[in-house]
């Protein structure tokens, strides 16, 4: 059975003056896939992600996300994706329930649907005792899980996660990845950037950017075989050294 492409990128480029922050990258991402987008700071991965989520205009090339062109239908893309930034887009001065209600409204859900989603999310996350507490009082790990759940509240086709597990402990990171697996199993495509190389092992396929270009793209197993490496960190180091 032919896999459905939910992200299609061909020669996508972003110039800042004479500097190519993203240099003619090409790749496809499939429905229900966990796609790792790796690279050192300054490699261009955040710039590339901003183009794909419709908040930065490409200089040239082509890209479709959830069936919509990044040049002409950026607003449609935003309605069909979820996005979780490094800083988590939650409001510390609102309660857990108020945050869920606010983002449900932003994504255009009906009041009845927001109520249903709120109750389901709070129960699923085990936050019944904290539903009316300010988000600012929650531990970092709970904020992270809530932020991910809110990014999925409108059942998007794709969720983009920008360094989602930065600063949390290993146990919470593992629990977060269990949530990612569940979302992917239910058909949501997960596009994730991370600098934790052990997390790259959890992805179906991994793209590695170096100086604005994609220098490697395959499953972690195949990349380790290709580069004769014991783990993904060794693969990354070999590519970074050129």
From TrEMBL:
Superkingdom as given in the UniProt entry: Bacteria
GO CC list: membrane
Subcellular location: Membrane
Keywords from the UniProt entry: ATP-binding, Membrane, Nucleotide-binding, Transmembrane, Transmembrane helix, Transport
UniProt key word Transmembrane helix: yes
Principal subcellular localisation of the protein: membrane
A Pfam match: ABC_tran
Membrane topology per record: Multi-pass membrane protein
ABC transporter domain span: 7-236
Alphabetized InterPro entries for the sequence: AAA+_ATPase, ABC_transporter-like_ATP-bd, P-loop_NTPase
Gene Ontology molecular function, alphabetical: ATP binding; ATP hydrolysis activity
UniProt protein name: ABC transporter, ATPase component
Annotated source species: Zobellia galactanivorans (strain DSM 12802 / CCUG 47099 / CIP 106680 / NCIMB 13871 / Dsij)
């Amino acid at each position: 059975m032919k896999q459905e492409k939910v992200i299609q990128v061909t020669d996508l480029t972003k110039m800042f003056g004479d500097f190519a922050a993203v240099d003619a990258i090409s790749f496809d991402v499939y429905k229900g896939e966990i796609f790792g987008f790796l690279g050192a700071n300054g490699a261009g991965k955040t710039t590339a992600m901003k183009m794909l989520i419709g908040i930065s205009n490409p200089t040239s090339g082509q890209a479709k996300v959830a069936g919509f062109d990044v040049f002409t239908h950026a607003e449609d893309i935003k309605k069909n994706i979820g996005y979780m930034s490094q800083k988590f887009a939650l409001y510390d001065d609102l309660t857990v329930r108020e945050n869920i209600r606010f983002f449900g409204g932003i994504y255009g859900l009906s009041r009845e649907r927001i109520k249903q989603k709120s109750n389901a999310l709070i129960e699923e996350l085990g936050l019944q005792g904290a539903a009316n507490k300010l988000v600012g009082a929650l531990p970092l790990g709970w904020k992270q899980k809530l932020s991910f759940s809110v990014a999925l509240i409108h059942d998007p086709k794709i969720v983009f996660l920008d360094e989602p597990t930065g600063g949390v402990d290993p146990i919470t990171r593992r629990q977060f990845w269990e949530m990612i697996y569940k979302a992917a199993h239910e058909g949501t495509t997960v596009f994730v950037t991370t600098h934790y190389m052990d997390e790259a092992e959890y992805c179906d396929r991994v793209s590695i950017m170096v100086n604005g270009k994609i220098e490697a793209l395959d499953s972690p197993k195949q990349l380790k075989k290709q580069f004769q490496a014991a783990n993904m960190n060794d693969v990354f180091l070999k590519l970074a050294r050129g």
